[in-house]
Amino acid sequence: MSAWLTRHIPKIAVAPSLAAVLFFVYGFIAWTGYVSLTRSRILPRYQLEGLDQYAKLFRTPRWDVAMENLLVFGVLFIAVSVALGLLLAILLDQRIRAEGAIRTVYLYPMALSFIVTGTAWKWILNPGLGIEAVVRSWGWEDFRFGWLVDPELAIYTVVIAGVWQASGFVMALFLAGLRSVDQEIIKAAMVDGVSLPRIYASIIIPSLSPVFLSAIIVLAHLAIKSFDLVIALTGGGPGYATDLPATYMYAMAFSRGDLGQAAASATVMLMTVAAIIIPYLYSQLRQSHD
Amino acid sequence: MKRSVLASLVLIAGMGTSNALAQPEVEVLHWWTSGGEARAVQTLMDEFQSNGGKWVDMPVAGGGGDAAMQALRARVLAGNAPTAVQLKGPSIQEWYEEGVLADLSDVGAAEKWDALLPAAIGKHMKCGGKYCAAPVNVHRVNWIWANTAVLARAGIPMPTSWEEFNEAAVKLKALGVTPLAHGGEAWQDATVFETVALGIGGPGFYQKALVELDPAALSGPTMIKVFDQMRTLRGFVDDNFSGRDWNLATAMVINGEAAFQVMGDWAKGEFTAAGKIPGKDYQCSPTPGAGFLYNVDSFAMFKVQGGDRIAGQKLLAKLIVGENFQKTFNLAKGSIPARLGTSLGQFDYCARRSSYDMDVAAGSGTLLPSYAHGMALRGQQAGAITDVVTQHFNSDMGSAQAAKMLAEAVANSR
Prior knowledge:
A: mainly alpha; 0% strand; B: 2 domains
């Protein structure tokens, strides 16, 4: 009896959470996929109607804008956050005074929610209240910084706010990585007369590749789920210029009573993420088998 | 054992009698939670309770009713709908099609609603020819508000056509005043758009394009002219309008920073709160052109179980259309009664004008539902139009292209 228990207790302990995940995650994914094949409006209906909702989705200009924005925002947000985080970490790694205090300052934005970040930057970037108004009050009457109200440029303000929030966190990741680089190799390189930039470029940064990977994974999921940042910063506007797939889905499901369309957009989002994640998982699993 | 069976029998019997004698009960889902609106709903609660009813309040704030609709969906799917829900326009019909609305035809017949409600508005309250909802008020959407002092300084009257408005706006700009106070939110863009469509195309065009969704009207030359005027108006708002709340735009008119605002009559509440007097400090007049765009709030009654709740529902419906409630509620909310022939002695000038215009419009068939406020179309179609309108207003898209996109977006949303 006790042998049986010892053997099975781990399975029994995991079973409820496994069942919950199966039902609440995979069950609801399946349900959403099913609803996306129906003509559900305010309430779900269960007669299958084929791929109408997807055809509609891909004919909608607003959806194209949302997907394009996700690409622009995702790529810039990840690239700039990583570059800036690495730069800050390298500068902070130069054995400077008050490092602890400075590190804390850069890390604090991560403690805020995206809603707070979005609202604060909405005021900072608002031409009538923020940077533009301040610089003009200093005497540069022609100074213009109206990205927030320019439909072509508004998506970049979302990038600015996102980078401000996340780069400190990336810096902390890199700082930990830098501290774990073997100092002996660096000293050996210095003895050989290698210049400092060359040491960073050829020795230190390549040795940080696992940190790059984890930073990019964390940032990628922040980018895909950054719904609250857009809602607080621009509300999707001007017009729908800063819509993301998540805000599109929210609008369809909860403002317009079009559950079928919302489910179709959610399914396309899932496919997009899967297209990135599955190859990655596959390569990881293969590595661990080797 | 025997005693406990007996005891439970007594208990069940007791429950039975208490059910039969129970007071009428309603559970009301609404999103009137701010200042004047909360006061307005309080008047209904008081009146219901003084008629012997039990009121269970279920306010769900947030997202202009989105959060409340979310709560409603969950309750309906759980088979436990609230008794009465703040719903309006075509969304009443959408819920009716899901088969969850109650039949109020006996209340409607007893209270003679057919004679008391304007036909255009009564139509929204009927599901398959039977009453299923009760209207509480009528907001007029096509109002233009102006600061009297600013108009006097510029020497311009209230505009009666959009050409006049454009001329006035040029003068105002020269004086350094923002001609049109506007907030760049999609629904505000849509509000201006529908008043321009009504003013330039006339009621017939409005009906064809924004109610019947006639493709020829949506992409035709009149619509192009409407978009031209929207482009002109874009030049009359300040640079900083994106994302501004409507009440902040009203504040710009109140303090003289801007001259005009196009907004429904809920804007009056902001003027009143600032201590301004209609006709003296500020002007209200219909936007240029004929017609009356209405936005009617109503309570739809859901199918419920239990005699007390059905009785509560019928009592609530009767009180909502009652003269007393229509008067007190609308005095608190700034709108006008939906019930014809309610005495308007205590109402201000703007409300009396609105009421008079509604009677005239009802007679001439120009009493039209507001598309921007969810009275004319279902969510998907209205949303598709709003997407194009706001996209055009916030970019440099040409009018012809906007009209073409409008027809495509509507076709795609069906």
